[in-house]
Design brief:
- This protein has 20 helices and ten strands.
- The protein folds into two domains: 163 residues, DNAb Helicase, Chain A, CATH 1.10.860.10; 224 residues, 3-Layer(aba) Sandwich (Rossmann fold), CATH 3.40.50.300.
- Strands 1, 2, 3, 4, 5, 6, 7, 8, 9 and 10 form a ten-stranded mixed β-sheet that branches.
- By secondary structure, the protein is an alpha/beta fold.
- The chain is elongated, with a radius of gyration of 30 Å.
- About 1% of the residues have low confidence.
């Protein structure tokens, strides 16, 4: 292995060799692979050419993979033609170097250990690279320096390194997947109400979709005034409150029907969002809270509620103008630090993509990037992600104002990426907008008749809402009736248990 030593000695003359590496382990692994090509089946799943410190070794490894992938033997003889013109191999003795690598048959025994060490050292070099870039960026004092953007970029790069060092992916047997399915069914049975995921806080919705499932992207959409932010907040609060209850009951976090939640509020401040939650729970209007127009008993209720919810695992990031990359970096940090199990984004049209430009085509591409990024975040963190979304004005131009999937604003990719799409519809909102003139003595009979008809219909829909399950990757679609208390921005289960199925998904 004299030529291997020469590579190491030559490399040590440059400062870059201070990086972690083991040239001898790389050479021994390559020799083992050429002696027994079957080792590639295990090692090739995780180890890639760029993990080798010595570029020549990376190219040899890549050539071995290429030959074995096409069912050909990879040994010094078959590899030689591939390296006839390689200048680097000439420096270490030419094609004879390939034969020298196979000099120790004992290397076959330790091949997996060599591969593991090469991989781990590559991770360390990646980590050093992130650190070096961070230092160089921090030393840059040019006018366009952006420290927070540098921190977010560093977090993203660190997470990429961490992902590389994660568990190795593998195919599951049918039996293993079936066992997971049985465990989910058992969890649903024990929790009651058909709940296999995290509770949404609504019995009918839980029964229809089984709760909020891990790795799902759930879109909550509606026109302005429908209460979509209130619905998402209500669902988040229900999950956080249930998590506290499950903890008190001694239920493990992995089996809990609740979860710590993170809300990225791009429209409302943290104080406004918390005021909404406290208003909902204390039955004191947000206006009373803001103005201080409270009776003593109302203030006592408000204070007691705030104290009761003080330890709620409910984290709010109200940073405006976030990019999808920055949001994902922050969500990863909260997952690592706080163990969040549900993410809410209000709302996704206020996020920015990585591209620049303001044309309609660019905006469609940007929304596509955002929706795809949210779905990837759900899979990366293995948590449900609720994305609140606006709807296009096309809704207002129809006689029936109930939303449709085609109304999702600016991009069909939202519908494509989402696992579940929920539309919030309140007929009362539109009915109030067309309230007829209040009749007075002396008005024609038609005026009285029109008002009575409107009043009768208003009584039927007052305080009611429809939650339309327009897409459900796990089952059927349909409608769930909810109550809506506008004063407290609170949705709740309706006393009317009627469920309106539409079709199977």
């Amino acid at each position: 292995m004299a030529e291997v030593v020469r590579i190491a000695e030559s490399a040590s003359e440059t400062p870059i060799q201070t990086l972690p590496h083991n040239i001898e382990a790389e050479a021994a692994l390559l020799g083992a692979l050429m002696i027994d090509n079957r080792l590639v089946e295990d090692i090739g799943l995780k180890l890639k050419a760029h993990h080798f410190f010595e570029p020549l070794h990376g190219r040899i490894y890549e050539a071995i993979l290429k030959l074995t992938d096409s069912n050909r033997v990879a040994n010094p003889v078959t590899l030689r033609p591939l390296f006839d013109g390689d200048e680097n191999i000439k420096e270490v003795g030419g094609a004879a170097y390939l034969a020298q690598l196979t000099g120790s048959g004992a290397a076959v025994i330790g091949a997996r250990d060599f591969a593991g060490q090469i991989y781990d050292l590559a991770l360390l070099r990646s980590l050093i690279g992130v650190g070096r870039d961070l230092v160089e960026g921090a030393l840059d004092t040019s006018e366009d320096v952006a420290p927070l953007a540098q921190i977010e970029r560093a977090e993203t790069e660190l997470y990429k390194v961490a992902e590389q060092g994660g568990a190795e992916g593998r195919a599951k047997t049918f039996g293993e997947a079936a066992l997971d399915s049985i465990r989910n069914a058992e969890a649903a049975l024990n929790r009651g109400g058909g709940l296999t995921g995290i509770t949404s806080g609504f019995t009918g919705l839980n029964s229809r979709i089984g709760g909020l499932q891990r790795s799902d992207l759930i879109i909550v959409a509606g026109r302005p005034g429908m209460g979509k932010t209130a619905l998402a907040t209500n669902m988040a609060f229900a999950a956080a409150e249930r998590f506290l209850q499950d903890q008190a009951d001694g239920i493990e976090a992995s089996r809990a029907a609740g979860a710590p939640i993170a809300i990225f509020s791009l429209e409302m401040s943290a104080e406004q969002l918390v005021t909404r939650v406290l208003s909902e729970q204390s039955q004191v209007t947000a206006e009373q809270i803001r103005t201080g127009n409270l009776a003593r008993q109302e203030f006592a209720n408000f204070a007691r509620t705030a104290d009761r919810l003080h330890s709620l695992p409910f984290y709010i990031d109200d940073t405006p103008g976030l990019t999808i990359a920055a949001l994902r970096a922050r969500a990863r940090r909260l997952k690592r630090q706080k163990g969040i199990g549900l993410v809410v984004v209000d709302y996704l049209q206020l996020l920015s993509g990585s591209g620049k430009g303001s044309s309609a085509d660019n905006r469609v591409q940007e929304i596509s990037e955002i929706s795809r990024g949210l779905k990837q975040l759900a899979k990366e963190l293995d948590v449900p992600v609720i994305g609140v979304s606006q709807l296009s004005r096309a809704v207002e131009q129809r006689e029936d104002k109930r939303p449709q999937l085609s109304d999702l604003r600016e991009s069909g990719s939202i519908e494509q990426d989402a696992d579940i799409v929920l539309f919030v519809y309140r007929e009362e909102y539109y009915l109030k907008a067309h309230e007829p003139k209040h009749p007075i003595p002396g008005d024609p009979v038609e005026v009285f008749t029109a008002f009575e008809e409107w009043e009768s219909k208003h009584r039927q829909v007052a305080g009611m809402a429809e939650l339309i399950v327009a897409k459900n990757r796990h089952g059927g679609t349909g409608k769930e009736r909810l109550r809506f208390e506008g004063r407290f921005t609170k949705f709740s289960d309706s006393a009317d248990e009627e469920r309106l199925p539409e079709e199977r998904g």
